[in-house]
Design a protein that fits this description.
- Helices cover about 40% and strands about 20% of the residues.
- The protein is an alpha/beta fold.
- The chain folds into two domains: about 230 residues, Rossmann fold (3-Layer(aba) Sandwich); about 40 residues, no CATH class.
- A six-stranded mixed beta sheet has the order 6-7-8-3-9-10, sandwiched between helices. Strands 2-1-4-5 form a four-stranded antiparallel beta sheet.
- Strand 1 and strand 2 form a beta hairpin.
- The chain starts with a strand and ends with a helix.
- The protein binds adenosine-5'-triphosphate (ATP).
- The site of adenosine-5'-triphosphate has 12 residues, from helix 1.
């Protein structure tokens, strides 16, 4: 049984004539990291909102098709239960912060407070999360006085603190510098090891290539490609659909085309190039 299934989803925002999501079906398996990518405005955030139930709960509009979470129709969950199963970190961390807590420490504890986690367990979890996200120097600061990147880290940390089985991260690194971006991807790796299912909206395909199991490519509200990272991110069709390929893959695809050879085995990451050269004794 897939942990998330969308079955023939069509969706139109309120007062819009044009449909945003068209005949979309997908299955996501427990414990995998999925990279949801595609051009701007192709519908990625909308899909996340459908999976989390914010559409049609908050956004209304016309939604048809079925959303199944852990084999059960999303309409059969109560809102509280769904919130503990699916954690959602928004594209804009400002939206995510509660606005009612004065320190980063309290902000991270806030979600647990709301669901009645015992105090001793809560303190233990906040300490663990602070360490995981390297927030030690920020715990006494007001969340709204942080930089954009710091807010983003705190927002994601608050989601992870609730220990949801499914974690949706909508462009989690959009405001982060390269070092903090790598750190977030390392945390994603760790969460995968803990058995979490992660849906990651991200434009940085080089990082998706290194950390995801599968890629879902969206174009104009349709799922146009889905498959293992190796298969999708070495396929030049991705670019035709408005997506991007890793820089390394682009270089090797160009080289393969010039030599008239197959593009199916191109490396996607610098590490793969290194491993390949190492095997041949060239480094
Ligand atoms: N609340 C809304 N009401 C009406 N239309 C909306 C609303 N939110 C998004 N849209 C439209 O739906 C389409 C898909 O938007 P969405 O934000 O899902 O795309 P995206 O792929 O996440 O974009 P980006 O990469 O730029 O964040 C866009 O045309 C957008 O203008």
């Amino acid at each position: 049984m897939s942990i998330i299934s969308l079955i023939n989803i069509n969706y139109t925002y309120p007062l819009e004539e044009k449909q945003t999501i068209h005949s979309l079906s997908l299955d996501l398996e427990k414990g995998c990291v999925y990279g949801l990518t595609g051009a701007n405005e192709s519908g990625k955030t909308t899909i996340c909102n459908i999976i989390r139930g914010f559409i049609p709960e908050l956004y209304k509009g016309e939604l048809t098709g079925e959303v199944m979470i852990k084999g059960k129709n999303i309409n059969d969950y109560n809102i509280g239960d769904l919130a503990t199963i699916i954690g959602y970190s928004f594209q804009n961390p400002f939206t995510q912060l509660s606005g009612v807590k004065d320190t980063v420490y309290e902000e991270i504890a806030y979600g647990m407070e709301n669901i009645g986690v015992p105090r001793s367990k809560m303190i233990q979890k906040v300490d663990e999360i602070v360490k995981m996200f390297q927030l030690e120097d920020l715990i006494d600061k007001n969340p709204f006085e942080l930089s954009g990147g710091q807010k983003q880290r705190v927002a994601i940390a608050s989601v992870v603190a609730l220990d949801p089985e499914i974690i949706i991260l909508d462009e989690p690194t959009s405001q982060l510098d390269p070092k903090s971006t790598e750190d977030i991807f390392e945390i994603i790796q760790l969460l995968k090891k803990q058995g979490k299912t992660i849906l990651l909206v991200e434009h940085k395909v080089d990082l998706l290539a290194a950390y995801c199991d599968e890629i879902l490519l969206i174009s104009r509200g349709e799922l146009v490609m889905q498959g293992p990272v190796k298969e999708i991110l070495s396929n030049p069709k991705v670019v035709e659909y408005g997506g991007q390929l890793p820089q390394v893959a682009l270089y090797f695809i160009k080289k393969a085309k010039a030599n008239g050879s197959s593009v199916s085995q191109v490396p996607l990451t610098v590490q793969e190039v290194y491993d390949h050269l190492n095997k041949d004794g060239e480094v």
